[in-house]
Input
Amino acid sequence: MDQVLQQKPLTFKDYKSDYKPVWCPGCGDFSVLAAITKALAELQIPREDCAVVSGIGCSSRIPAYTSVYGIHAIHGRALAAATGLKVARPELTVIATGGDGDGFSIGGNHFLHACRRNVDMTYVVMDNEVYGMTKGQASPTTASDWEGSKLTPHGTGVSPFNPLSIALSAGASFVARGFAGDPNGSAKLIAQAMQHKGFSFVQILSPCVTFRPEQTEWKKIVRKGEIEGGHSLAQAMSFLATDDGFATGILYETQRPVYAPEMSEKQGLADIEASFEL
Ligand SMILES: Cc1ncc(C[n+]2csc(CCOP(=O)(O)OP(=O)(O)O)c2C)c(N)n1
Ligand code: SF4
Output
């Protein structure tokens, strides 16, 4: 008699790899890893149908800690690699991850164009307002008066930018903010972002306890679920006009054409190698 094998649903643990994270104890990125794996379990994405792509930084180590496919690309180029992967393999669920330095400084230009292109993938940025991996320099989201870096001992004197505002202006079709101290809330946001058809951007406030120890206070000031966004761009823009950066939730979601070019012909490895010959 044929035996029907009943497969057990995957849990978040099934999406974790055997590598132990090397993050500092208390780093917010632990919770973001938990949130991403919970979102994958919630949606029961087959592991072989998913890839996590990152650049360089503490937060960009995430692909190694998951059991799905991964690309640990070069600094600032997570979105370029993720875009190429999704366009070449549209059947894959693609999640790009990284930090504010990786995504908004060296990768800033790629961020703008990813929002504009609207490739169907999710970008999760662990924002700790600092370069953690390179020992605490200021990033594009660091407040102008932060005096914690030896490189800018009197503060940067430069206004930080608001990633949600940039994403919205550049055309992202799903924009949200979560908090590492709320892994269940972040998992829900990431799952919603993954279900969105188009480019979805989720900023997650993720404390760097080593170079920004004061960020442990974020748990007292974050207001979970307070963002009242929706489908109106005007409403989202007006929310951002008075945003202090500590409310979480979905700011904006809309549907617009997804960039998914047809591959004219399947290239073999030999063709690709030939195209690189000098
Ligand atoms: C081309 C290049 N420039 C600079 C570096 C050095 N570098 C490595 S990680 C990093 C910043 C990481 O900061 P962030 O993306 O905010 O991540 P975090 O470590 O805070 O998670 C920099 C400047 C590099 N690896 N490659
Ligand atoms: S340096 Fe900061 S961002 Fe990097 S692992 Fe430590 S706490 Fe996390």
Remarks:
- The two ends are 61 Å apart (CA to CA).
- Residues 176 and 250 are 4 Å apart (CA to CA).
- The longest helix spans residues 29-43.
